[in-house]
Write a structure and sequence with these properties.
Elements: E1 5-14, E2 17-27, E3 32-36, H1 43-51, E4 57-63, E5 66-67, E6 77-80, H2 92-103, H3 109-116, H4 132-144, E7 150-154, H5 162-177, E8 181-186, E9 197-202, E10 205-210, H6 212-219, H7 224-233
Parallel strand pairs: 3-8, 3-9, 6-7, 7-8
Antiparallel strand pairs: 1-2, 1-4, 4-5, 9-10
Helix pairs in contact: 3-4, 6-7
């Protein structure tokens, strides 16, 4: 199987701070990959490197057979940041129609993605009047307009109620079943069991790359949080 993402010896320095160091992994089409770790461990920086918008990168980051950030990837990679990147004074549907026109999405895609993110009943509502979780789903909808081959999601379930979290994870699984690679960052360890594979970061280093069941077996743990603590405690302390 051809890798959808190949990262080799990735490092990122910001001023005097080494944010990532020696990160190496490869991802496959059809995987839901959890990127887990505490706040400040480098998750967002790694995701920005995958999308090709991170400065100060050394090493190799290849996405869908080409260098991350290449212009040809703009219609094949979807990225949802923690802060919703939509226009507050437009309605939900107006936002999606605008981004659909910019991206060249098909005429029926707006209705499809509104259903996917459970916002069809809010289509005419101004984004500024939505809750934080609803605005985050509008951002997710814009990323789905072109059915991306790689979907990178930075903590997409923060602030959502359990039913919406469940529904979004079901959506991620459907997208993966259709062949996309879905990378989801979280600091909530109980979401890990929903993933096919886990990348655990600590202080800018990749300390584990395994399936949830494999991680539990290798550490003798009963849950992912305990497994992470077991691995973290075995690592040298200090910033990379």
């Amino acid at each position: 199987m051809t890798h959808s993402v190949v990262v080799e010896d990735l490092a990122v320095r910001r001023g005097r701070q080494q944010v990532l160091e020696g990160v190496t992994f490869a991802l496959e089409p059809g995987e839901v990959v959890g990127l887990l770790g505490p706040s400040g461990c480098g998750k967002t920086t790694l995701m920005r490197a995958l999308v090709g918008v991170q400065r100060g990168v050394t090493g190799t980051v290849r996405v869908l057979g080409t260098d991350a950030g290449t212009a040809s990837l703009r219609t094949r990679v979807g990225y949802v940041t923690q802060a919703p990147a939509v226009y507050p004074d437009l309605s939900v549907e107006e936002n999606l129609r605008y981004f659909g026109d910019v991206l060249g999405a098909g005429p029926g895609r707006v209705a499809v993605v509104l259903e996917q993110v459970a916002l069809a009943d809010r289509a005419g509502q101004l984004v500024r009047t939505l809750s934080g979780g609803q605005r985050a789903r509008v951002s997710l909808a814009t990323a789905l307009l072109l059915t991306p081959d790689l979907l990178v999601l930075d903590e997409p379930t923060v602030g959502l109620d359990p039913v919406l979290r469940r529904d979004l994870w079901a959506l991620f699984r459907r997208l993966a079943a259709e062949g996309a690679t879905v990378v989801v960052s979280s600091h909530v360890m109980d979401e890990a069991v929903r993933c096919d594979r886990l990348l655990l970061l600590r202080e800018g280093r990749l300390v584990a790359d395994d399936s949830p069941s494999g991680l539990l077996r290798s550490t003798g743990s009963s849950d992912v949080e305990h497994a992470f603590l077991t691995i973290a405690e075995a690592q040298p302390a200090g910033t990379p």
